[in-house]
Design goal:
Length: 211
């Protein structure tokens, strides 16, 4: 596979810190905060850290002016933790864009099948490794510049950007298309069909299981 260009390589030379995350929701159903805490313990064995920006950490970013933090992310950090607040199929928020758009390698954590949505060999899936193995791999990648640069070869083939919201008129036309109107389907247990993991997320309160 074609290597990255000289300009991209030069932009990666300023990296000096392991990972960062922008975090404003401190208690989540995905329990990402527990994963991050344990990851910090494992990274400390290699003298590496995770810097937490936002309400849930000591470092702050002004929401109205994130440019300074984005610049710091781009120039200083090897990895960005794109950890989701919920674990659900196909659920990916824009947090992963913080990694791709600001010159870092995203480390993803969620319930989506990331191979369907993200360029191959461009990210690390934390849920497949666990905290101990992830910390070890992060350390080894940082020590191996060529390995780190390999994570950016996707730029030779892909462009990543946030998709625009769906036009409601297009959506209306779509759901009223004659072919779709001929389809008949019904679901007895709507909640289970809509979200197979609702029991884990909502707990056992009876009020959650009324339909």
């Amino acid at each position: 596979m074609k290597s990255i260009d000289k300009l991209s390589k030069s932009l990666l030379q300023s990296k000096s810190k392991a990972a960062a995350i922008f975090l404003d929701k401190c208690n989540t159903t995905s329990k990402r905060e527990k994963f991050i805490k344990q990851l910090q313990i494992e990274l400390a064995k290699y003298n590496l850290t995770v810097d937490i920006f936002g309400k849930c950490g000591p470092l702050k970013c002004a929401r109205k002016s994130m440019n300074a933090c984005y610049y710091r992310l781009k120039t200083t950090y090897y990895f960005y933790l794109a950890f989701e607040d919920s674990i659900a199929p196909d659920y990916i928020t824009t947090s992963v864009l913080n990694g791709y758009l600001h010159n870092t390698v995203p480390i993803v954590y969620g319930g989506a099948k990331y191979t369907k949505f993200l360029p191959p060999d461009s990210y690390i899936d934390a849920s497949l490794l666990g905290e101990t193995m992830l910390a070890k791999e992060m350390f080894e990648i940082i020590q191996n510049k060529e390995w780190y640069q390999d994570f950016f070869k996707w730029r030779n083939h892909y462009v990543i950007k946030e998709a625009a919201g769906m036009d409601p008129c297009v959506l209306c036309d779509f759901i009223n298309h004659p072919a779709w109107l001929d389809i008949r389907a019904s679901y007895v247990h709507l909640r289970k069909w809509w979200n197979p993991y609702f029991r884990q997320k909502c707990g056992t309160r009876k009020s959650y299981f009324s339909f």
